Amino acid sequence: MSKLLSVENLKTHFFTDKGVVKAVDGVSFSVEPGKTLGIVGESGCGKSITSMSIMRLIDKPGRIVEGDIFFENKNLVNLNQKEMRKIRGNDISMIFQEPMTSLNPVFKIGKQITEVLMLHQRIDKNEANKKAIEMLELVGIPRADQVVLDYPHQLSGGMRQRVMIAMALACQPKILIADEPTTALDVTIQAQILELMNDLKKKMNTAVILITHDLGVIANMADDVIVMYSGQVVEDAPVKELYANPIHPYTRGLLNSVPNLAEDKKRLDSVEGSVPNPLYLPEGCNFYPRCKYACEKCKTMKPQLIEVKKGHKVSCLMADSFVQDSPLRQERMSDNA
Known about the structure:
The chain is an alpha/beta fold. It contains 13 helices and twelve strands. Strand 4 (62-71) and strand 5 form a beta hairpin.
């Protein structure tokens, strides 16, 4: 299947008074039509900045310093703002983390959706109003004809998130970027929102980039996964392969930190240490200060993202030994014994 979006060696840096923050530092991945790519990692690993870079929404002091973002043979990095506005919200839409800060509090719901439709679809106000009601009904909002007359503060968190999804899908985008779409929602509403996104993806063949720290959500939603750490991709694999055979020590640490009701553990495992200061990253592998398998070369050599198995890429100097006869594999075997 052809690639709909291809990100190649993307670098987005922030130039501060204290130094350069390499928020995204050489990230590469691709997305196919109708597929979901999950992006996971701890807070501050560069997930959201990657999505904002795709949308070309990086403000000063940040900027894309290197790399390419190809969408339908167009390099988004080279487009001017007028050209980018035709794509943003039309071909590529985004659901932001907090709907209350994304929706304008002084405009009614209907106006905010019709504005998008009139701008990109070039339709009149009456037709846009009908389409807005249809979209609200599509995302499961009852009394849609009344909700278009409401202000954001009159809706619950789950309803506002559905409105954001309706707005993002109004122009039938080819790519939907969902940045922590279920943050601050209760588990019942979370499940409904995720099920809704899956249904809409199937109906509209929309590609989805799902950004989250919730590995359970990724397991249920994604086709492929990239794991990010300190602005870089440390592992890239199909979702089933990643969960069955995690290779990078950081990926395994993340998976081990997820509660498992089948295991009788008094306390959860955790990844020791903390994320390094982005202004003072290690000379070698960014993860080596927290890695129990690190060797001397990890302190001075930067690992590259390489394919260690078909479709499975890892950025780790010890990756080959992990795949063959690794401490990680022995540890997995002892865990399953």
